[in-house]
Amino acid sequence: MVYLDYAAATPVDDAVLAAATPYFNEQFYNPSARYLPAKQVKQAMEAARSSVGAWLGCRGEEVFFTAGGTEANNLAIAGVMQQYPGANCVISTIEHDSVHEPAQAYDVRYASVDEQGIIDLKRLREVIDDKTVLVSIGYVNSEIGTIQPLKEVAKIIESIRKERQTQQNDLPLYFHTDACQAANYLDLHVHTLGVDMMTLNGGKIYGFKQSGCLYVHRKAQLVPLITGGGQERGLRSGTENAAFAIGFAAALDNAQSRRVDEAKRVAELRDQLIDGIQEQFPRAEVNGSTKHRVANNVHITFPDTHNEIVQLKLEQAGVLAATGSACSAAKAKDLSRVLKSIGKTDAQAQASLRFTLGRATTKKDIESALSALRQTIS
């Protein structure tokens, strides 16, 4: 099979498995226990936390391990919003469901995007008012691959903070980003990007599913979603999953240390796929920005087709692709929310496929995918 759905899931890297394996059975101790073997596990977890912090350019104590990106996104949103009943939050219209859905529990405002999926900075500035306490804008869109100008968003937020100081408005204004699709290819330094919180997911970077973290700036105040034992400095109770935390740190180290070379390699294959599709199907349309696009994403509309039928035929031909976000597809609703936000019709949304490339993708794989598309769509 030619696998072209790396945005949905990645295989576990051998180095990640090797780093985590001892903590499944040999060093299985509860990190919170007081005896020496348990303390050694705790030390290994803290070393992993510091390793993650080094790649984010933050302190280790600002890294909180979670069971994946969805939990981290929920913690970022609810952890802030529960403290301010009369406040509101702002998200873009193309956020992942794990941001979009928890935001519905509060007074949520929407910042629109242009036809390429890039945030409208002027509109963003307009929807943030005196009662906004949280802005959440994804770093890379999981469906169409658009990279958002987080630094520009951060400048807007900082200017609003300064205005509030002069108006004696003491409400905080936090900036969160879902960076789950960015870690393989983009810089994650939180201070350079200007974010107060950042979500990462191990399952997208060749680590374990249900592993990840939330970066929280030391000055940001969150309330926990899970209480009980007080682990993760009181923000996430429950016995720590040392194996997954250590594996996540190894996955992030692997992803970030090779990101520049890998982004270049994968982008060449991405462009080969796009060029091949447009040559074979002149009416095909690339969705999302062609300039500000993550290296591995190809999202295409094939007019007069139905994506579920094409996806099935491609699978029969040995190619695995996606009709959209795996989380949305599992619920069988809101399949075209992102595409509608960039001006696509229902018919265009139902005629769109997503191909996402990864470490194992080769030129031969792209050729095979193009051949399968030619047979299927013709």
What does this protein look like?
The strands form three sheets. The protein has a seven-stranded mixed sheet with strand order 2-8-7-6-5-3-4, with helices on both faces. Strands 9-10-12 form a three-stranded antiparallel sheet. It has 14 helices and twelve strands. α2 (36-56) runs parallel beside α8 (242-257). It has helices spanning 14-20, 36-56, 69-81, 97-103, 121-127, 150-166, 190-193, 242-257, 259-280, 307-316, 326-331, 337-341, 346-349, 363-377; strands at residues 2-3, 63-66, 88-92, 107-111, 132-136, 174-178, 197-201, 212-216, 285-286, 297-301, 319-320, 352-356. β5 (132-136), α6 and β6 form a beta-alpha-beta unit. The protein is an alpha/beta fold. It is globular and about 65 Å long. The two termini are 21 Å apart.
What would the principal axes of the Cα set say about the shape? globular
CATH architecture of the largest domain: 3-Layer(aba) Sandwich
> How does the major sheet shape up?
7 strands, mixed
Per CATH, what is the topology of the largest domain? Aspartate Aminotransferase, domain 2
- Structural classification: alpha/beta
**What's the mean pLDDT score?**
95
Rounded radius of gyration (Å): 21 Å
Major beta sheet, strand line-up: 2-8-7-6-5-3-4
